[in-house]
Specification:
The chain is mostly beta strands and 627 residues long. It folds into six domains: 41 residues, no CATH class; 110 residues, no CATH class; 120 residues, no CATH class; 85 residues, Immunoglobulins (Immunoglobulin-like, Sandwich), CATH 2.60.40.10; 75 residues, Sandwich (Immunoglobulin-like); 148 residues, Chondroitinase Ac, Chain A, domain 3. Strands 4, 6, 7, 9, 10, 12, 13, 15, 17, 19, 20, 22, 23 and 25 form a 14-stranded parallel β-sheet that branches. Strands 3-5-8-11-14-16-18-21-24 form a nine-stranded parallel β-sheet, with no helix packed on it. Strand 39 and strand 40 form a beta hairpin. It is elongated, with a radius of gyration of 40 Å.
Amino acid sequence: MMNWRASFLGKLGVLFLVCVASLSWTIAGLAAPPEQDTAPAGTNILGDITTSTTWGLAGSPYYIQAQEIRVTSGATLTIEPGVTVYIWPDGRIHVDSGSAIIAKGTPSQNIVFDRVTPTYTWKNIRHYAGSTSYYRYVQFLWGGNTEGSLYYEGGTHVLNNCEVKNNKRQGIIANGSTVDLRIAGTLFEGNKLHTIWVASGAKLTITGSTFNDPDGDWSIFVRDYAPAPTISVSNSNFLRSLAIYNEQYAVSTVDAENNYWGPNHPSTKMGPGVDYTPWLSSQVARVGITTPPTVTFTVAPDPSVARPVGTVYTFDASDTTDVEDYLSSLDLCWDWEDDGGGCDATVVSPTHSYASGGWHTARLTVTDTDGLTGTLTQQILSGWVPTATLNFTQTTWAQIEVDAAGSDDVEDAPEDLKAYWDWDGDGVWDTGAYSITTVVTHTYSHIGRYWLTLGVEDTDGVVGTQTRAVDIIPPAAAAPVDSSGGMLVSTDGTVTVTLGVGAVSSDAVITHTPWITVPMGYGDLPGDFTYQGFSLTVQSLGGQPISGTTGTYTITIDYDLDYYGNVLGLWSDTSMLRLYHWSGSEWVLVPFTIDSGQLIATTDSFGDFALVLEAQRIYLPLTLHSY
């Protein structure tokens, strides 16, 4: 009984009849063909591919029963390892602009494009400008009956570890100024005419490939269609008698250094316009493009937040990628404790729960079909979170005493817990470990609101925290002044007020009262946040307020950019500092200069002043916002 594919009787007037279990061919007007074997089960392709489509192994082989089908713009045809595609005699696949073919076979599961009958060949896969393709471990067999089996007019394309064999005419045509074709590790064998025909400005890069077409013409033929193409060939084998011919030798040179040309001198098989020096003395192995996997995975729920022992975590590596392989072709190895004890799971999205508290390291190692690996670890915090209880007493305007007495943990005794302190809430522990009952003292050096944070750590390394605001506001300071002038220094030393001769006409007292929020009833400040504020009041010895001076006086402020950055989390720069004065109806900018860490302002009015950082708020607790 003859093979079903050998029973094809002609290529004109063919009618396909699709049956439940077989595919038969009948030529109109002729006798029925002899009895034949049942065709393999498969999938019939009758029309264009207009949406992204995957041809999987379960549906293989695929029979293209139209003489032309298109992968239309916006669609991607994905072909999985092991798939065979049979193409109608004279059939063709068009890859339109804006579309793509991705066909990634493996060393053990090649993808095959082949003729449907041994009598006739198919035309080609034609890639238009703006298209993309990636072929790996793909065999292109018995095509190219009028043009190359792979025809490139433009776009970006890769042939990686492929085979282009027994094509009736050219194996490849690259003809277009936007063609960017990379070929690596590919075998060209048994093709007729020129193996690769290049023209019209195409860019062609070939590495690690072998040309073995004894019955054909030139392995690479450069046609004299302007503009000249750009061709680079290296570490490849040219085993036929005719290697490279460049018709555009007058304007371009083919870069063909470091290739094997056979036992004879390369000049005996070379046309003009080819730089073949130096060359290799022996044949080299085919080498394709290989890159290791890019490993990524997520963990849910959030692995940085401690949860009770036994919590089930879902791990998902769906976004792990490899240039040469589909995710389904990769080998995944999950190691839940990163102890090197083997693979605890091998699927893309496993689940796992930890039986003990503390930090656990989960490692995913991914191996591709070239044997290259990528790896990634994530930390998972398991266990009950201690309850942190922060106690503090403000013993002076600048000093606090703190302890963590009252903190507890489900799993550990209080004496086994450790307390850490962050004085300003910048996320960095400022102390070592203390007992939770130890009283610790800290003194702040600068006016402001600080976010005192306690961290309580249990024996599993799980930390619970509590944060409380501490307002550091120096008490008011006063100094006598008279017609000869005077000076006032704030209690914390950050503000100096200097009155010159004649600023006030009689004996008086000037008082500096600091604040960190805008007084009630005042209008909005122009900046995002009031860094610090203060009131300057002057009274005569008889108790009468003095609203201004007969001249001007100077206010010098020592500012602290570290407070902006470390405490408030603001991007700070001296160019953003401003000093405003409340006129009674609005905030008015006070002229000032910056010199050596000081803001120096000159004014003739007393009252309320605000030092403002006019910066975009990155992080700022709402209670600190000044309006």
